[in-house]
Amino acid sequence: MPESQTNSENKASVPTALTLDELREEMRLAAASIRQWMPETLPASDDGKIHFARLLAESAAESIEQFLATTGGA
After folding, report:
1. What is the mean pLDDT of residues 22-41?
2. Looking at the 3D structure of the chain, how many domains does it have?
3. What pTM was computed for the model?
4. Residue 11: inside a domain, yes or no?
């Protein structure tokens, strides 16, 4: 059996589902991490342009924040 699969008899290694509140908290933390670390990791150039990867990450953070705000998780 590949290591990525679990034996059904080994209950300790079976992943458990997150509750909706836990999922919202994980999403909130992900968005906060993006907001905190992307500007430092991929700073704007001298002329103010930002890296495409940073733009995508910050867009994802914004989408997460909007989702949380509209679903009462923010």
Report:
1. 96
2. 1
3. 0.71
4. no
